[in-house]
């Protein structure tokens, strides 16, 4: 085969490819009507719903990768690159199967309807279950009882910043804050009592939180614990500690540190923070 024949072979192939692409583009333009617009809107709504479901989970990192694969699929189909289209389709299937195995727990939470902790707190407000004054009274009564019974406990309460990262290091709960439940958790020294209890708008969103992705071997219920100090600094959280050997209450919020609080003067410190 001579050079002219080889040149003709590639030129004819390129012309055929461009002709196919032009045909596909013309067909795409002819189909761009109201139905196509509705189709695009539905796809965007579906992607928004998917993002809403997986935000706050490790699955969110898959969105750019899946978007890139879908773009390659669209372009290869449009230009008639069938080999690339089928190989990319196979790659998409492999990625989805791998994601299902690696992120099994995240998928389980989504399909089981296990909402993110912030949505649980928001739902409580919308349902009328959250009352700031009632929560303040319940919290104060709970902390006083913990102190008087010398029960060691660590409560981290949202004030301004999100506590999502702190809740992720514990066991998700999504339970309404009640005195009975808190006392039951910490007095029996269960697994949930091994770390901090995270509270957001009257909802116990997690318990047993280490407040850090690299927890120490022994998690201290103390304001001197670096993880506790970091949580207060980075998240503006209200942190309350009760002790097992003394009837005292320790409290940390932003730059304010209160130690040796008695049940009598606890309300005086909590009111400006929780009720403003």
Please give the largest β-sheet. 7 strands, mixed
- Summed over residues and divided by their number, the pLDDT gives a mean of 76
| SS elements, strand count | 7
State the shape.
elongated
- CATH homologous superfamily placement of the largest domain: DNA integrity scanning protein, DisA, N-terminal domain
Low-confidence stretches: none
Strand/helix succession: HHHHHHHEHEHEEHEEEH
Describe this structure in words.
The chain has eleven helices and seven strands. By secondary structure, the protein is α+β, with helices and mostly antiparallel strands. The protein has two domains: 33-111, no CATH class; 117-274, YojJ-like (1. The protein has a seven-stranded mixed sheet, sandwiched between helices. Helix 3 runs antiparallel to helix 4 (82-102), helix 7 (132-148) runs parallel beside helix 9 (179-187) and helix 7 packs antiparallel against helix 11. It is elongated.
Brief overview:
This protein is 58% helix and 14% strand. By secondary structure, the chain is of the alpha+beta class.
Main features:
alpha+beta; YojJ-like (1; 11 helices; seven-stranded mixed beta sheet; elongated; 14% strand; 276 residues; 2 domains
Topology (elements, then pairings):
Elements: H1 3-31, H2 34-54, H3 62-79, H4 82-102, H5 104-111, H6 117-126, H7 132-148, E1 153-157, H8 164-167, E2 171-176, H9 179-187, E3 196-200, E4 203-209, H10 226-235, E5 238-242, E6 249-253, E7 256-261, H11 263-274
Parallel strand pairs: 1-3
Antiparallel strand pairs: 1-5, 2-4, 3-4, 5-6, 6-7
Helix pairs in contact: 3-4, 7-9, 7-11
């Amino acid at each position: 085969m001579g050079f002219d024949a080889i040149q003709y072979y590639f030129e004819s192939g390129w012309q055929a490819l461009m002709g196919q692409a032009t045909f596909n583009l013309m067909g795409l333009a002819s189909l761009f009507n109201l139905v196509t617009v509705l189709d695009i809107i539905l796809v965007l709504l579906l992607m928004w719903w998917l993002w809403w479901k997986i935000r706050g989970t490790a699955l969110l990192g898959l969105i750019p990768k899946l978007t890139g694969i879908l773009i390659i699929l669209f372009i290869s189909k449009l230009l008639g690159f069938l080999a690339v289209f089928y190989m990319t389709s196979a790659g998409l299937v492999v990625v989805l199967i791998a994601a299902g195995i690696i992120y099994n727990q995240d998928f389980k939470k989504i399909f089981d309807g296990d909402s993110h902790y912030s949505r649980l707190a928001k739902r409580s407000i919308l349902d009328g279950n959250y009352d700031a004054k009632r929560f303040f009274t319940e919290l104060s009564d709970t902390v006083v009882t913990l102190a008087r019974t010398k029960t060691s406990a660590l409560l981290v309460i949202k004030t301004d910043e999100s506590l999502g990262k702190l809740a992720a290091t514990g066991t998700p709960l999504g339970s309404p804050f009640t005195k009975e439940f808190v006392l039951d958790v910490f007095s029996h020294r269960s697994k949930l009592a091994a770390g901090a209890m995270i509270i957001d708008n009257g909802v116990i969103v997690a318990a047993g939180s280490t407040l850090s992705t690299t927890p120490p071997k022994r998690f201290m219920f103390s304001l001197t614990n670096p993880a506790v100090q970091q949580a207060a600094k980075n998240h503006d959280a209200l942190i309350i500690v009760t002790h097992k050997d003394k009837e005292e209450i320790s409290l940390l919020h932003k730059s304010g540190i209160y130690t040796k609080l008695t049940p009598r003067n606890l309300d005086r410190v909590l009111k400006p923070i929780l009720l403003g």
